[in-house]
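Fill in residues.
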């Protein structure tokens, strides 16, 4: 596969992963009767179950290929990229809203790209500057609108939601960088198999969430609420965790970390789009401008990678 084909395939997988991941921002709004901990426990139990079924034919062979270091990597990646991240994100959405959570997570591309620029052979930071500036301008547009709406100041719930969103940002940034670098080192395990292994480990870890999730909020729910909760948890487990993570791992393997960071922008765009559909409104001028700036940021970053000198190593 040529370098150009790898890049195009990686970008396509990144866009598709963003479209599916954007759904996780909407899920807490769909089941507000349940706590973020309950939603996370249910989502990851389902994720672990489906991952175990899919990986069963290869399980024995894969277990023999992995050393203790790789198992520890699977555990901390599962915690940071799934359980801790989503408990914090779902809390941020329910306390501060979809737009605020999307805004804070919109800083992911900037942070990951800055970290990736330190890798050997990465595109120089100076060449990425236009893309980062466009991304920052887009985030500023959404930030300005959010601040304008909060004319009365941030209440206690909003402040806690903001802190949760910042924690989710830190958790997922660490996961994105660590997962990308592990995928570069793993030659005996495919990106899809690695994603399923993370799913199995996440499912096991989620078992420790079930009891506290049910004890912390023991409010009764009727059958229709449980049915909706089960459908939402199962849906995001399949589409966001199984399919979305597989697409993302393919992106992480095909693209350098500096470009992988920019692909996360699509999660923010789709999260905002789903939020507009849920609220049954069109984007405001500032929100529309932010979307244009974010798209231009990705195109600028792609151009920076396309014009890099032949022979430069890829992460």
């Amino acid at each position: 596969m040529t370098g150009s084909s790898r890049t195009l395939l990686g970008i396509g997988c990144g866009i598709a992963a963003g479209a599916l991941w954007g759904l996780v921002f909407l899920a807490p709004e769909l089941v507000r009767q349940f706590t973020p901990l309950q939603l996370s426990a249910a989502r990851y139990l389902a994720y672990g179950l489906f991952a175990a079924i899919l990986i069963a034919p290869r399980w024995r062979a894969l277990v023999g290929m992995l050393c203790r270091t790789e198992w520890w990597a699977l555990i901390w990646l599962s915690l940071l990229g799934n359980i801790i991240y989503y408990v914090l994100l779902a809390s941020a959405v329910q306390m501060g809203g979809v737009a605020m959570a999307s805004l804070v997570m919109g800083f992911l591309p900037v942070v990951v790209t800055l970290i990736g620029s330190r890798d050997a052979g990465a595109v120089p930071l100076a060449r990425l500057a236009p893309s980062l500036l466009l991304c920052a301008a887009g985030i500023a547009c959404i930030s300005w609108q959010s601040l304008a709406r909060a004319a009365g100041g941030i209440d206690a719930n909003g402040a806690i939601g903001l802190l949760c969103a910042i924690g989710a940002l830190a958790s997922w940034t660490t996961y994105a960088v660590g997962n990308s670098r592990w995928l570069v080192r793993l030659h005996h395990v495919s990106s899809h198999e690695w994603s399923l292994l993370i799913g199995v480990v996440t499912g096991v870890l989620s078992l420790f969430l079930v009891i506290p999730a049910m004890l912390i909020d023991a409010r009764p729910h009727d059958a229709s609420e449980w049915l909706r909760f089960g459908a939402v948890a199962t849906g995001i487990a399949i589409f966001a965790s199984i399919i979305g993570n597989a697409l993302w791992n393919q992106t992480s393997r095909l693209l350098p970390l500096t470009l992988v960071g920019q692909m996360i922008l699509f999660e923010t765009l789709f999260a905002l789009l789903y939020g507009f559909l849920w609220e049954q409104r069109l984007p405001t001028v500032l929100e529309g401008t932010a979307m244009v700036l974010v798209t231009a940021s990705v195109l600028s970053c792609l151009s920076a990678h396309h014009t890099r000198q032949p022979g430069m190593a890829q992460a």
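Confidence is low (pLDDT under 50) at residues 309-315.
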